[in-house]
Amino acid sequence: MNYPDRETIIEKLQLEAHTEGGYFRRTFQADHREKIASGNGPRYTLTSIYYLLTAESPVGHWHLNQSDIIHYFHLGSPINYYLIEADGRKRTATLGPDLAAGQQLQLTVPGGTWKASHLSTGDYGLISEAVSPGFEYEDMCLAKAQRLISEFPQHQALIEAYT
C-alpha cells in the first residue's frame, strides 16, 4: 500500500492550522438533530474532525475540553498522549498501528481532563476525533504553564514540555 505524504494529506483533506498545534478540519456536525443544552449554551450532539501532527508542528499543546472525545488513529507515525485528570492522576497512551507494542487505535478522553499530544518520530500522524456534546471553542481552554503547574506541581516537567 502506498501512503500519502503530509502535503497531500493537508491538501486533499483541506486541513488548516489549529490553535492547539497541528492541523485540522471539521468533517461533521449533527445538523440533522436538535442541539442539546450544555452549561455554555446549545451544542450539537456530535462533531468530528481530522487532526494531523507533523514533524514541523509535532505538539498538541495542553488544553482542557468540556466534552468527551474519542480519538481514532488513521495513518502515519504513533502519537503520544499525556492526560492529567482533575485529581492529578497522570495517564499516558500512544495511538498507533502497532498493537503488539501496546499502541491503541482508539483513545477515549473524558471531558474535564487536561490533554497534550506529541509526534515524537516520523513525518506525520493522522487521527480523527469524535466530540460529544459537539466541540465549540468556548468549551476549550488552552493551558497557561504557570496555572497548570500551580494545580499539578508534580507534573511540572511534562507541563513545561508541552505548553
What does this structure look like?
This protein has 163 residues and is mainly beta. The protein has one domain: Jelly Rolls (Sandwich), CATH 2.60.120. Helices cover 12% and strands 40% of the residues. The chain is built from three helices and eleven strands. It has helices spanning 6-12, 145-151, 156-161, and strands at residues 16-17, 23-29, 47-54, 59-65, 68-76, 79-84, 90-95, 106-109, 114-118, 124-132, 140-142. It has a six-stranded antiparallel beta sheet with strand order 1-2-3-10-5-8, with no helix packed on it.
Which features characterize this protein?
Jelly Rolls, 3 helices, six-stranded antiparallel sheet, 11 strands, 163 residues
Structural class: mainly beta
Which stretches are poorly predicted, pLDDT < 50 over at least 5 residues? none
| CATH-assigned homologous superfamily | Jelly Rolls
DSSP summary, beta strand count: 11
Write down the secondary-structure element order: HEEEEEEEEEEEHH
CATH class: Mainly Beta
> Could you name the CATH topology?
Jelly Rolls
Largest sheet: 6 strands, antiparallel
Order of strands across the biggest sheet?
1-2-3-10-5-8
Average pLDDT, to the nearest integer? 96
CATH architecture: Sandwich
- Oligomeric state as shown: single chain
Number of domains: 1
Q: Helical amount among residues, as a percent range?
A: 10-25%
Shape from CA axes?
Answer: globular
Distance between the termini: 36 Å
The total of helices stands at: 3
Strand content: 35-45%
Radius of gyration: 16 Å
